[in-house]
Design goal:
The complex is a heterodimer of chains A (544) and B (348).
Chain A: E1 10-18, H1 19-32, E2 36-37, H2 52-74, H3 91-151, H4 164-170, E3 178-185, H5 189-199, E4 205-210, E5 215-216, E6 223-224, E7 226-233, H6 236-248, E8 252-254, H7 260-317, E9 320-322, E10 327-335, H8 339-353, E11 360-364, H9 378-390, H10 401-416, H11 419-434, H12 436-441, H13 447-454, H14 456-473, E12 475-476, E13 479-480, H15 502-507
Antiparallel strand pairs in A: 1-10, 1-11, 2-10, 3-7, 3-8, 4-7, 5-6, 9-10, 12-13
Helix pairs in contact in A: 1-7, 1-8, 2-3, 2-7, 3-7, 5-6, 9-10, 10-14, 11-14
Chain B: H1 6-22, H2 27-34, H3 39-46, H4 64-84, H5 90-114, H6 119-122, H7 144-151, H8 172-197, H9 199-223, H10 231-236, H11 247-254, H12 258-266, H13 272-275, H14 287-302, H15 310-334
Helix pairs in contact in B: 1-15, 4-15, 5-8, 8-9, 9-14, 14-15
The chains are: A alpha+beta (544), B mainly alpha (348).
Amino acid sequence: MGSLFRSEKVTLCQLFLQSEAAYNCVSELGEIGLVQFRDLNPDVNAFQRKFVNEVRRCDEMERKLRFLEKEIKKDEIPMLDTGDNPEAPQPREMIDLEATFEKLENEMKEVNANAEALKRNFLELTELKHILRKTQVFFEEAEYYTQAASNGPMTEESVNLLSDEGLTQGGQQALRLGFVAGVILRERIPAFERMLWRACRGNVFLRRAEIEIPLEDPVTGDQVNKSVFIIFFQGEQLKQRVKKICEGFRATLYPCPETQAERREMAIGVMTRIEDLNTVLSQTQDHRHRVLVAAAKNIKVWFNKVRKIKAIYHTLNMFNLDVTQKCLISECWCPVDDLDRIQAALRRGTERSGSSVPSILNRMTTKQEPPTYNKTNKLTGAFQGLIDAYGVATYREVNPAPFAIITFPFLFAIMFGDTGHGIIMFLFGLWMVVKEKSLGASKSDNEIWNTFFGGRYLIMMMGLFSIYTGLIYNDIFSKSMNIFGSSWNADIAYPGDMGNNVEKLMLAKTYRLNPNSTNWSKEPYPFGMDPVRLGAMSQSTFGL
Amino acid sequence: MNSVNFNINFGYLEGLCRGFKGGILKQTDYINLVQCEILEDLKLHLQSTDYGSFLANEPSPLSVSVIDDKLKEKLVIEFQHMRIHSVEPLSTFLDFITYGYMIDNIILLITGTLHQRDIRELIPKCHPLGSFEQMEAIHIANTPAELYNAVLVDTPLAPYFMDCISEQDLDEMNIEIIRNTLYKAYLEDFYKFCSTIGGSTTEVMCEALAFEADRRAFIITINSFGTELTKDDRAKLYPRCGKLHPDGLAKLAQADEYEQVKVVADYYGEYKPLFDGAGTGPGEKTLEDRFFEKEVKIMMSAFMQQFHFGVFYAYLKLKEQECRNIIWISECVAQKHKAKIDSYIPIF
């Protein structure tokens, strides 16, 4: 880790790329990730840069991909993520990708529109079915009351409004009551009732019943609770008013036949239509599912490809276009030790684009301070991240990270200091390290797990050091241990205190041990602190 | 409510509001925006501001109405978040702010119904902050009395309707009178509520509401020249919580033409400079623009004090002004007519 002692030497370079080769070279440089570009057009607006159209096309592609991803997630299809790194596609492949996405998006939109229309139809039929069932109850109740009433005195409430008795009771010979039946969201019923009562001055009669199962809203797909209602009124004006109010509260009205026989016929017709619709609906869903499954196989790869294209064009926007020589110029910071790799990447890029003119990398001298670059591997990366969280070191300053690899876990262990728990921690870290390939491949969304997994080496070392300090503290699973036997003896008491009087010793609550006595094993406790301290009165405050 | 205990209940929301205020577009943003050639450029630039990718999921080509809707949506989400997390008296305060939008929505729906528009066409045009349950059933009413009895009596706007109930039918002229009467009652109620809160809120809000009241008085007067509105009716529409009350309002009620209004304004130090040099000639700002400028100034100074509710009101007004600015610039860009593109009101 000699190179971790200070940050790498970084130099400013000038890059001359031929216009045809520029895309591929930047792509190769992006893959090795060793170069930091400087923005040579800081005063130019985002939308006045050279490659802004390509960036816009990438934005459009990403939007289409996001739409597809949302649909895939809605259907809970798992998206295949192999974790491999697709190469950035060539500019001419971008057109193919765009065409593919466009086709997929249009197909999905069409399928969605069809499904929505079908679902709306289905919803209407289901609501109609419920209405027919529930209004049956309303009319039946009214019938029951008339039966009971004909045996006893008639009261106001028990009169069936729609039968001839009711009408003659009310004194209206030839006027029939009209009614509308419909379905409304359950949450809107109180306000609906109140407004009906107010607007019609109490001259309408509302009965309602809840639909037990939630129905699916065709547009959003949410499950909503609805209720069936039926409103009785008299006269045309009230009917108009009632209809307007229903429209205002987004209640859907359905034609409901008056007689029971008609209702039963309608119910049967509705059931058959519902079954037919069900089959069509399930077929549409299958088709949609097939399209989405096919898309889900590739969607992660597509996302990566589009993002790479976008990144390349963002970088190219930072370049300076030299019109006379038809090449792109840029300035970048490169680590001195890796200049060979960068040259190799540039050569690969020029070859791939089939251009004859090689790309040129010139070192420049400058008075500006280069950026700090620390080469880390997976072990040192966690510690470097820890140090950088407090502040990034300046260029070529001594890097605290290599020291922190030892000091941080050790200081942690001093505070932790338990052998048993240290073993558990060490084994947990060891398991994460050994299984890091498979655990890293399953990209989890859980933030806490990702934090632990990112610090697996840290945890392993903290556990290891904690075992050591736990042995020193004589602590295992928060219980004290005495492995080698204490070097102190109870008869090392102060002269004049108790001497060798064993009975007095046993009855005493506390006694002091004399360190100057000759009666001891002449060898200190071999490893760690002497367990005699665990019997001392000051035990709880010591060593914590 | 004093500054010592303010943060217990309202500290989070005030901090949030100030954070939102920090995201308001600066002068440099406007300079970049006026250089756009097409609407997609605007979208690209707005991505680097606090607005982020709010237009990211809209298919191109963009239109100005889409931008308008999305801007409003973002503002509504922020406001709803603050409203949901607030406790008394802040929740009542924020509710008061929404009553203004409710009045606008009611008037929009009634006007639309008068012109035989389908209610479902009109609902998306309503401002989301001012929506209430009974809103969609407004079209059943034919007279103000019906409107009150059936629809509005359950809403918080019921007490403002006292002066409006008449048996006349709802028609064009009366609708404007109803709007202004409602708004007058609402402003005065809001003013009274803010006075009871005390502390810096009273200071800041009463100044803001007084300016709003005076502005409405001036605009009503100027707009009523040449209409059938009598002077008495006009005097009934002036909100009385501003600085013009009572003398200025009495004079304004007598005014017959623009010059007389200007004379009234000359008596008041704050309003004199607004009328000087205002006009519709080239290079001059219109009176409305000057009123907007003054409003922006008052709202900015509301942020100078801490521990009061005025920041929420001020933030909403400033954000609305910003939306108006962005839409103005978008329109100029979309129609490729950049002559007056600089007539937006700069905020910072």
